[in-house]
Amino acid sequence: MRLAAECEILFEASEPTPVIFMLRPRSGEGQWVVAETYLLEPSVSVTEYTDTFGNLCQRLVVPVGAFRLHTTACVEAAAEIDVYPGAPFVPIQHLPEEVLRFLLPSRYCQSDQIGNLALEIVGDAEPGYDQVEAIRHWIQTHVDYQYGTSDASTSALDTAQSHVGVCRDFAHLGIALCRSLNIPARMVVGYLYQLDPMDLHAWFEAYVGDRAESPTVGRWYTFDATQKEPRGNRIAIAYGCDATDVALSTQFGAMQLLEMKVAVEALEEEINIKVRDSLLSDP
C-alpha cells in the first residue's frame, strides 16, 4: 500500500541549540520511499549523515525562538508483515557480525537480569520464532497500555515490574526478553497506518531462521506487542539497540517541545475514491 506520512513538530529555543533529528525513512526491505519533503521554519543549514545503524540523521542548530519542522514521506509499504511459526533459532556462531551487537544488554534493555522471566514466559515453546511470539503475546496480554505511566528513564526491568507502559516500553521489554534467550532483537521507530491514537510508534524485530531446512540462515521479523494481530503498513524510520539509538530528536541545550502532530493516510484509497466519485458523476 502507498502511504503518506506526515510529522510536524514545534519547538521553542531559549538559546541556539545543537540538535540531531532522525525523521527521514530510507528505502529498504519492506518499504520504498517514493517522495519526501523536509521543511524547516526558519530555514537553517543542515548536515546529514548516516549513523552506524544505517539511519539518516540531520544535524543542525536551532536558533532562538519558535522553530517548526515539517516532514512528509510517500512510501510503498508492505501490506502485511511476514510471520513464520516454527522458524528456528539461529546458533550464535552462525550469526552475521552486524547482528551480534543486538544480543548484548543495553541501557534500557537489561537482558542479563531478566532471564528467569523469559524462561517462564516461553515455557516449552520451540527456540526461535515461537519463543519470540510467546514473548510478544505475554506482553500484549500482561502489560497495560497507559499514557503517563512511564518516562524517558523507564527500562525493561521497570516495565516487567509495573506491567504498564507505552509502545516504547513494550518494545524494550520484548527486546530484553529475547536477548536473554540469545535471540538478537532490535528496536524500530516509525509510523503505523491506522494506529489509534495516531502518533509515532515503536516496535521490535527479532532475528531467527529464514528457512526451517537451513537453521544457519536468518532474517529479521517484526513483532508488535501493542497489537493483538500481525499488522503491516508500517514505515520504519530508525533502528537501534534501544531508545538511545532511535531518538527522533536529540538536543544539546535549552529547547522545549511545544506541539507535535502525526498523520498517516492511504493514498491508494484516496485515489480510488476520487476515481469512483468521478465515474459516478459522469452523465
Describe the structure.
- The protein has a four-stranded antiparallel sheet with strand order 3-6-1-14. A four-stranded antiparallel sheet has the order 4-5-2-13, with no helix packed on it.
- 20% of the residues lie in helices and 39% in strands.
- It is built from five helices and 14 strands.
- The two termini are 31 Å apart.
- It has helices at residues 115-122, 129-142, 156-162, 167-180, 267-281, and strands at residues 2-13, 17-24, 31-41, 47-50, 56-62, 65-77, 144-145, 164-165, 185-192, 201-211, 214-223, 234-240, 249-251, 255-266.
- The protein folds into two domains: 2-78 and 246-276, Immunoglobulin-like; 92-231, C8orf32 fold (Roll), CATH 3.10.620.30.
List keywords for this structure.
single chain; Immunoglobulin-like; 283 residues; C8orf32 fold; four-stranded antiparallel beta sheet; alpha+beta; 2 domains
